[in-house]
Design goal:
single chain, 211 residues, alpha+beta, 2 domains, 4-stranded antiparallel β-sheet, 26% helix
Amino acid sequence: MTYTFRRLKAENNKILYSIENRYACFNTGLLTPTYEYIYAFFEANNKQSKSSQPFFFVGFFKGIDSRITSHFSILPEIANYFSDPSLLIYNPNLPIAPNIEHIIADNTQRFPEALRNNPDLCRITMSGAILDTQKRIRANYKLAVPHWHCYMNKIQLLVPLYLLTPSGNPDLALAIEKVENQYIARTCLTMAMAYQNARLIVKPESTWLLP
């Protein structure tokens, strides 16, 4: 929800305020079981001090709820994360160029404990895992899951890294970004982080990225 709010704030006119800024609302992008958008609704904090927040959260409501319709003549739009749909699909003809030293140095605590205190073993294992991953996603491009990098404001793809048990569950997700005629990899995410970021765009349907 926090990342959704950040994205909406970065886009113009997607967080709506009522007359005199007494109320505010935004589209969470989530749906009810009957596919109606859910809106977060806020009311101005009239008792605020210098350190308090300007609005307080009232609740989540459907667009037909009177608390929404009585204060807003139009409904806020959902967040948009991409303009080029091709960024969501992995191109198996492009190589992956990983900055392995940088990935390891910046993300040591995300690696399995067995690799954290052995940089050489970690580097060798990482190199082999990336080669293995490239074979996997060339055989099934749907293994690459799009995610939103909220700090860089761009779409990347997440691919699974099997460091310890190639036949088991992935240990990490490698973030790859299309740059000209290749994919650059500069970081990796834990599985929980990967699912959270991917969920911003759409519920992942991949067999390896689960909540």
